[in-house]
Amino acid sequence: MEKERGSGRILRPAITVDAGASRRQFLRMAGGGAALAATASGFAAEPLPVAESARVLGKPVAADPYGQPARFEANVIRRQSPGLTRTNESSIAFAPLQNLFGIITPNGLHFERDHNGRPEIDPATHRLAIHGLVARPKLYSMDDVLRLPSVSRIHFIECGANTGMEWGNAAVPTVQFTHGMLSCAEYTGVPLSTLLDDVGVDAKRARFVLAEGADGSALTRTIPLSMALDDVLVVYGQNGEMLRPENGYPLRLVVPGVQGVSSVKWLRRIEVGDQPWHTREETLHYSDLMPDGKSRQFTWIQEAKSVITSPSGGMTLLDKGGYYEITGLAWSGRGRIKRVDVSTDGGRSWGTATLQSPVERKALTRFRADWVWDGAPALLQSRCIDDTGYVQPLLRQLREVRGTRSIYHNNAIQTWQVLANGEVRNVQV
Amino acid sequence: MEKERGSGRILRPAITVDAGASRRQFLRMAGGGAALAATASGFAAEPLPVAESARVLGKPVAADPYGQPARFEANVIRRQSPGLTRTNESSIAFAPLQNLFGIITPNGLHFERDHNGRPEIDPATHRLAIHGLVARPKLYSMDDVLRLPSVSRIHFIECGANTGMEWGNAAVPTVQFTHGMLSCAEYTGVPLSTLLDDVGVDAKRARFVLAEGADGSALTRTIPLSMALDDVLVVYGQNGEMLRPENGYPLRLVVPGVQGVSSVKWLRRIEVGDQPWHTREETLHYSDLMPDGKSRQFTWIQEAKSVITSPSGGMTLLDKGGYYEITGLAWSGRGRIKRVDVSTDGGRSWGTATLQSPVERKALTRFRADWVWDGAPALLQSRCIDDTGYVQPLLRQLREVRGTRSIYHNNAIQTWQVLANGEVRNVQV
Question: What chain A residue is nearest to B355 in terms of C-alpha separation?
């Protein structure tokens, strides 16, 4: 490695990865350190040789009217966690957070959680019913919905069970599987309040709404009316285009800041009522089992949480010491991220990370911190604070209240251990 | 159409479209008014019948590790303008602005402009050279670049020739072809200033940099050093994932606010010099032919511009009168959009549109305005003002200075005429 280095900010290639855990696909493609060393051969000859790619005519612009990723990125995909679910239809495909940049999750990589598989719905025949305690029950076609005044907002969606495996121990090796039931997109749709206004909600009696999906699980969730009238959207657009089939095409609810299951996909029915429905997905599931055997129900909000996505579990820091950019994501179901702290010594000391703008309400926020590794073992952590003043807790603080048998709502500080040989792994401290 | 309507905001389905011009795919799928009328059959029977999609097991979550649009959206694609270019390799694929929501262009629909086709580049062998008036010329591998401190920002990219056909007359029928050389994404990369700092720019002599692509056209563009040190990015990430091949994979320049050709794709070389290079793509092309036969050169900036994307050319308003949402995009190469005005009478009177947040610098801004059409012929226009105070000009104001033979930098107010029968067409007033 003789490459000349002029600035302390420019450093030697440093991270390689295990299959399925790469931050960036190149690292594996390039064969790690060996191939990288070849880049150090210097730069003496001018002019530069003509690039091979410049010797041939490229593909025409009509090659793919709808574009696809480069074939070199074929390993950057959603993945199932082996053995986590008994079927592939009531299952989860995790987003590859270690490969992602910025805050927008590209639609092809948005995590998927289905309860009875992904239905195919023809938008020409799809209808949304709104009924119950309303003056004028109605059936809306997609065209009806698309005619209404719309809004676009950037929001995260996180499954309530995200990071659930960590309640017991450091169960899974990579951030894709610890935190990958998390994505963020610019959603476009109609405020639910507009639709409720149209049907004429019975203001004296109505307290809750029920949302139901058109999939085989007929997934249903109760939502407080106050929340429904606040910032809930009936969504058809995701990152500029129509929703993808796995994310609810052609219509879904987005309940900002609330566990993902409430953002009912393939939305077909909204019922207005005076009390919660206590359906299967809010009693048997998506309730929080406490140490005394009782369950907390209707724990909607995803509290403030953050995670370092690079370096993260499964990666290897190739260079012993030197500069690394620590980067990750922070979010809060209650509002904006105000600050993210980063520690490299397991929480004994903290520095403040840089937040990438825009910092939106109930959206992912990208943070970054510079780190010069001294080559000794390290414990990487991030801790976020939202604009309510809430501080992301330690895992042991959560366990003191909720034990270790929970599944949902684990928003604890995540620790990645860097070993002296550069390997990074999931640990609990 | 007997559907009950309770609120003035909720209106009858109203827009249908020509092939290739749909705002939203449903409109064609649903067969226009006939199918929509079927939705008006009312909502008397409860409970709702079980949805067909709920009677079957859906696809497993592993069905597509990298997701794709619904098959019903197959018509929402990039398109070439028939006859515009002589080859498909030096050509343009326009983004379907009439189909897009919000400000993010999904990567599959980002417009494509190639000068010698789209090369395929292996990131493992790709190198970026930085040389010229520098202390330490260097070759960077992709791993080298990926190790550097990164930033993410939302920016538009607009080809300098966007809307170029309109210099002469209202030449093309839809907003995809009038304004579709325009897209917006969250880009992630390294500030060019970081790389220039690493190689040690000769501060006394350096005034310009040259960027060169690795495609067969060896596309080259001069960029002032002051601009290069300001907000220019060497980019590898687009909307969270690696660049797509057609957008410069694995590395491109993004020169915010400047005509797209300067955001050199497949970036392989940056040379630092003391004067402009006057290459082919900044002399023969991408210069502005004035009425006196001389050309303006190095007209970098894309001045403030806006366009209504719905209703827009090729659509038909099905209902004679009633509510329509007017929506579109505004952007400025100089900074933020401050205000957008909308007129429905060809500019005699104006109302202020709502701007969707976030409103970012040198990024698309989504605007919306309510419109109750009285059924008479109308002329729809939008006019934006950026935070420098610059007001988007009329076409005749541009022509007074630059004549009608220009190709580039047409940022005039666009007019869509709504006929009494509801048809919308491209006109010049």
Answer: A151
Of A289 and B367, the one with more pLDDT = B367
β-sheet bridge partners, residue A234? A190, A253
Q: Model confidence at B30, in pLDDT bands (50, 70, 90)?
A: very low
**Rounded CA separation B273/B206 (Å):** 5
Distant-in-sequence, close-in-space partners of B219: CB < 8 Å, separation ≥ 6:
B115, B116, B212, B213, B261, B264, B265, B281
Integer angstrom CA distances of residue B33 from A138, A236, B112, B325? 18, 21, 34, 18
Scan for tokens 């797509």, then name that residue. B244
- Give, as one character, the DSSP assignment of residue A49: P
- Three-class SS of residue A286? coil
Q: Which of 30-69 (A) contact B at CB < 8 A?
A: 30-31, 35-36, 39, 41-43, 46, 48, 50-51, 53-69
The domain spans of chain B are 112-296, 305-427
Q: Residue B166 has which token pair?
A: 């309109």
Strand partners, B417: B379, B425
Cβ contacts of residue A399 below 8 Å, gap of 6+?
A167
Contact by Cβ (8 Å): A233, A166: no
In words, the CATH class of domain B305-427 is mainly beta
Note whether B67 contacts A56, CB cutoff 8 Å. no
Q: pTM for the full model?
A: 0.92
Tell me whether residues B30 and A245 touch, CB distance under 8 A: no
pLDDT of residue A49: 85
State the pLDDT confidence band at A175, using cuts at 50, 70 and 90.
Answer: very high
* Cβ–Cβ gap B241/A48 under 8 Å: no
Q: Name which residue leads in pLDDT, B196 or A47.
A: B196
Identical fold for domains B112-296 and B305-427, yes or no, is no
DSSP state string for A233-257 = EEEEEETTEE--GGGTTT-EEE-TT
Q: Which two tokens stand for residue B387?
A: 């935070």
User: How, if at all, do strands B337-343 and B315-317 pair?
Assistant: unpaired
| Pair of tokens at residue A395 | 């895992």
| pLDDT tens digit sequence for B181-219 | 999 999 999 999 999 999 999 999 999 999 999 999 999
pLDDT of residue B209: 98
Pairwise CA distance, residues A266 & A258, whole Å: 18
Task: Record the tokens describing residue B310, joined without a space.
Answer: 């719905």
CATH architecture assignment, domain B112-296: Alpha-Beta Complex (3.90)
Taking the CA of residue A293 and the nearest CA in chain B, the distance in Å comes to 32
